[in-house]
Amino acid sequence: VNLVESGGGLVQAGGSLRLSCEASGIILSMNTMGWYRQAPGKQRELVATITTRSTTNYADFVKGRFTISRDDAKNTLYLQMNNLKPEDTAVYSCVAESIGMSYWGGGTLVTVSS
User: Fold this and answer.
1) What is d(CA 104, CA 52) in angstroms, rounded to the nearest whole number?
2) SS3 36
3) Is residue 60 packed enough to be buried (19+ CB in 10 Å), middle (13-18) or exposed (0-12)?
4) Which of 14, 17, 40, 62 has the least C-beta neighbours within 10 A?
5) pLDDT tens, residue order, the chain (114 aa)
6) Starting from the edge strand earliest in sequence, which strands make up the sheet with 66-71, in order?
7) DSSP-assigned beta bridge partners for residue 81
8) DSSP class of 51
């Protein structure tokens, strides 16, 4: 199983980014997928999840700003991030929750300047 994130970078506050998580060795639509983030000096926190039935769930601090989605044909997970804030600066990682196992990508850095 291999998960590779991309799409991070430097953006000004109020800007947007779309993160991608390309998967191989696992079918994303058959697993609950999620995005987590970890800011410097802080614990990792859940950002959003999407179930096999495409039910989504968001942390309160991103509701209305971030959208998680999945392209089953491309076997890719996305995180559309709008109205970014400096406090959104973190390494964002995708995770696939399979039965008894969690598979993590290496992460992509998002930096939001004020």
Assistant:
1) 17
2) strand
3) exposed
4) 40
5) 999 999 999 999 999 999 999 999 999 999 999 999 999 999 999 999 999 999 999 999 999 999 999 999 999 999 999 999 999 999 999 999 988 899 999 999 999 999
6) 2-6, 17-24, 76-81, 66-71
7) 17, 66
8) -
Contacts of 43 (CB under 8 A, 6+ apart): none
The vertex-107 CA angle with 101 and 109, nearest 5°, equals 155
State the amino acid at position 71 in one-letter form: D
Rounded to the nearest 10°, the torsion over CA 97, 44, 69, 86 is -170
**8: its two tokens:** 């991070």
Query: CB within 8 A of 51, min separation 6: which ones?
Result: 32
